[in-house]
Write a structure and sequence with these properties.
This protein is α/β, with parallel strands linked by helices. It is built from 14 helices and 20 strands. The relative contact order is 0.08. GO terms for molecular function: FMN binding; metal ion binding; phosphopantothenate--cysteine ligase activity; phosphopantothenoylcysteine decarboxylase activity. It catalyses: N-[(R)-4-phosphopantothenoyl]-L-cysteine + H(+) = (R)-4'-phosphopantetheine + CO2; (R)-4'-phosphopantothenate + L-cysteine + CTP = N-[(R)-4-phosphopantothenoyl]-L-cysteine + CMP + diphosphate + H(+).
């Protein structure tokens, strides 16, 4: 039976899983207490979640809790109704099977073809039906490092099963964060699929240039757009690296991150990552300081001895120009922030940047819906192919989706 009490949260975070039916298999790990949160997060992206529980899972979390969390009756026994076929059969099966948490016992049973619990029976049926299977392990670290367990994992990977890596801490392999698990589910089912191995490099935040050891010149870029683009790249299946300058935002925990501060540090990292020509896409959302102090004072400037401070500035290198020179085949998506200029001039400046980029998003940060740190943005998108689109008060996540769609189209032409 399906209950309607949780309809208010369906799609509250987006529609990435709208219309998707996901079986959440819960096994007898202490981490089972996180299953309701995982389920609710999937629902918030539009999914219909059906829980399946082992007997040991029922000892950890109650059946009623999963019924409340999902709005569906948990499957705790396989009956003459053939629940495993209904959930994982070729004709009636779900879009994806997620085992979270997955114990060593369950994972090794799956690898051995054992089907002695509702969870293992559903999984074995799904493997025969070709339904995608994601597994999020949770156990003590010595069990996670057990050679027999690792062999079972490799065996399952060889037939297409994907694992969501746990967090190794305090001698435990702790289940991945609910947010990370949810993002892996979205990635597996996402509407846009870049070719496997597509490498994306995203920059976010602001650079700083030192006046002295504790004073800097910087700007107000928050990094919100860059974070949104990095998440979208991951969802689209890209191998994503996020390079962040100064930002107060927590980075997406499932994406590889490199921290930099100055424009020189940024250039050094970009040269390392781009010189082999393997990066397919570069998103330059980081706001690089246009000027830097000509001289960095090695000691703190003493305010007691100087009423006025005169600084000489020199121009910094244009990062976007360097990217194309290092890796000409990389699709470059440039970003330009202007302040208080007419739309026609904004477009002219964006199109001028196409000399060094394939796609440009230019915004006027003087507008209330487009200021630094705002969840929304307003501007224009132009491409080398003549595409033009005006953006008015859109969420940055929506603009990130559009930019990835354009990049995907460009990569496949």
């Amino acid at each position: 039976m399906k209950y309607r009490h949780n309809l208010s949260i369906v799609g509250s975070l987006g529609d990435a899983l709208e219309g998707r039916r996901i079986v959440l298999c819960v096994t007898g790990s202490v981490a089972a207490y996180q299953a309701p949160e995982i389920a609710r997060l999937l629902i918030r992206y539009g999914a219909d979640v059906i829980p399946v529980m082992t007997g040991d899972a029922l000892r950890m979390v109650g059946e009623e809790l999963l019924r409340w969390a999902t709005g569906n009756d948990p499957v705790t026994n396989i009956t003459g109704a053939l629940e495993h076929v209904g959930l994982a059969g070729k004709e009636t099966g779900a879009d994806l099977i997620l085992v979270a948490p997955a114990t060593l016992n369950t994972i090794t049973k799956i690898a051995a073809g054992v089907a002695d619990t509702p969870v293992t029976l559903v999984v074995q049926t799904a493997l025969g039906s070709g339904i995608p299977l994601l597994i999020a392990p949770a156990m003590h670290e010595p069990m996670f490092l057990n050679r027999l367990f690792l062999d079972a994992v490799e065996k399952l990977k060889s037939i297409g099963v994907e694992f969501i890596e746990p967090m190794l801490a305090e001698e435990k392999a702790k289940i991945a964060l609910p947010e990370v698990i949810c993002e892996h589910v979205i990635r597996k089912l996402y509407r846009i699929k870049f070719p496997q191995g597509t490498k994306a490099l995203v920059t976010a935040g602001a650079t700083v240039e030192y006046i002295d050891p504790i004073r800097v010149v910087t700007n107000l870029s928050s990094g919100l757009m860059g974070m949104a683009i990095a998440r979208e790249c991951f969802r689209c299946g890209c191998d994503t690296i996020l390079i962040t300058g100064r930002t107060s935002l927590p980075p997406p925990p499932h994406i590889e991150r490199i921290n930099i501060l100055t424009s020189k540090e940024l250039i050094n990292i970009l040269e390392q990552k781009l010189k082999h020509g393997r990066t397919k896409i570069y998103f330059g959302t980081i706001a690089v300081a246009d000027y830097k102090p000509a001289v960095k004072h090695e000691e703190k400037i003493k305010t007691e001895t100087a009423e006025k401070l005169m600084l000489e500035f020199t121009r910094t290198e244009k990062i976007i120009e360097r990217v194309k020179s290092i890796s000409p085949d990389t699709i470059v998506v440039g970003f330009k922030a202007e302040y208080g200029i007419p739309e026609e001039e904004l477009r002219n400046r964006a199109e001028k940047l196409l000399e060094h980029a394939d796609i440009v998003y230019a915004s006027d940060v003087s507008k209330p819906t487009s200021i630094f740190g705002s969840p929304t943005t307003e501007g224009i998108i132009v491409t080398r192919e003549g595409y033009f689109k005006k953006i008015e008060g859109k969420k940055k996540e929506e603009v990130a989706e559009l930019l990835l769609e354009l990049t995907y189209s460009m990569l496949n032409t």
